[in-house]
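Protein modeling request. Please complete all fields; requests missing the sequence field cannot be processed.
Requester role: graduate student
Desired output: 3D structure, token encoding
Chains: 1
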Amino acid sequence: MTIGEHIMLLRKQQGLSQADLGKQIGTSGDIIGRYERNLMTPSIDVIIKISDILAVSIDYLVGRTTLVLDKATLKRLEDINALPAEAKEYVLNHIDIMIRDFKNKKAYSHK
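Delivered output (111 residues):
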């Protein structure tokens, strides 16, 4: 997906009009429409504002990843990353265990 397609999809999911989003980032709805139709590419400053308003990572917005990381998830990852190495490894091991268990439960429930 293009940056314009991501902007349009996220904007609609959040119930915002082009004018609403434009107002929140300090531009017009017409400019948002041009971004969405890929007639214009937003500057990095505008991309940052849009990602903040739509609560997604810049990487998702520009198409570098298909993983939608909301601000709360990003904050959790930052908190884990800031831990001392031993504590970080402990937390990540527990996450791995929980993911494994969830996948196993899902696999066995689809008999």
